[in-house]
User: Fold this.
Amino acid sequence: MTETNSAHRSFDLKQYSFPTEQIPRLSITDPEAERRISKALPVLLTDTNLVTSALHWDLEYLSEHIGDGDFVVHISKNKNFQYFDNKKSVNVKDFQKPTEKEDMKFSEFVEKLKKAKPGEDRLYLQQILHDTVGKKVINDFLGFNWHWVTRQQKDNHFGEMTSNLLLIGMEGNVTPAHYDEQENFFAQVRGYKRFILFPPSQFSSMYPYPIYHPCDRQSQVDFDNPDFTRFPKFKEACGMETIVGPGDVLYIPMYWWHHVQSIPSQGYTISVTFWYKAGQAEKIEYPLKPQQKVAMMRNIEKMINQALNNSAEMPDFMSNMTLGRYT
Assistant:
């Protein structure tokens, strides 16, 4: 049994091949919390009250009040919900979609979720919150601690907010390791999630897919069964982890890898994300930060891929640039 940081609960957690340390769990009154956010370091915040007005949300309440619009539900044959860009599927011969996507009424999603049995398809609702939801849910949304999160946006020079994503997943669902190009305050409403994060400095250890691949920004490494022959530097990976419970908010800095599991406890989990674009740095300071180098690599890779206009030429082109010259 592993003792968690959230509500003093214990969970049976899988042991992976890499070591981890705990992400600091701090009050917003602790100066170290503000320092970590300002330095783009992950921190778990215990008392933001960011989504306190939504802590009563459960399937019954949302079924009654969320409205009759369509909701995006991802469907997986296994526990993994790996993001992919379907527009890039043409670049990879015989690409197999890791998940399917279906629009459903919320009541249909709840019915399927409640009837799901082990071994059957797994579900994960991922829907942007907007003004089509019911009045009571809108009032809950307006009751979020916007003062705190907007102050974080301003003080840390984030760009504009892009979306609030409502996530409702079955227990045991896994979002495999990936990184995002936005800042994220991840707020837990119901249930518990295990987060394992890796800094941008470990980019080479995580083996992301090529820029043109549908699973761009995802790690190629199977954490459950890592292939150290194909991915030898993964042996050097070292993560940070935490358990996020109701009322907790995890700051996930841009370009930090994160592997997420919905921990079995209450049948399902509910979360809300707060996404912000990258801010504009006043000036470039050297040496460059690891996340700046990742951004630079991505932009160069995009430029070369666009110039070649043929993704199949990318491996040889990239190899010819480096092998025997920088190796």
